[in-house]
Amino acid sequence: xxxxxxxxxxxxxxxxxxxxxxxxxxxxxxxxxxxxxxxxxxxxxxxxxxxxxxxxxxxxxxxxxxxxxxxxxxxxxxxxxxxxxxxxxxxxxxxxxxxxxxxxxxxxxxxxxxxx
Length: 116
Prior knowledge:
By secondary structure, the protein is of the alpha+beta class. It is built from three helices and eight strands, in the order E-E-H-H-E-E-E-H-E-E-E. The strands form two sheets. A five-stranded antiparallel sheet has the order 5-1-6-7-8, covered by helices on one side. Strands 2-4-3 form a three-stranded antiparallel sheet. A hairpin with a 4-residue loop joins strand 6 and strand 7. The chain is globular, with a radius of gyration of 16 Å. The relative contact order is 0.23.
């Protein structure tokens, strides 16, 4: 079944040496693994990999995929974090950031302010 979700990705880059390490963990080609999870990727001439977009519609257990790649995602610093922003079918919002080799989940806090 699944849960409809709209996902936007930003700055998800895996350096060439980490691509090789990630490939060694898998039973199938990395590109196939990424596609099986519903994402698209591209490899640059220098060997860096970018995970570009979510091709699916339904959310299943994608956190497992994010946990798998988290130690390999390049940390580009606090002002340029790799992140995945999500908007669920019921309006729920959340995002994941890759920080120091870990996947961290964030939820928004919305404050309603009276306008004069």
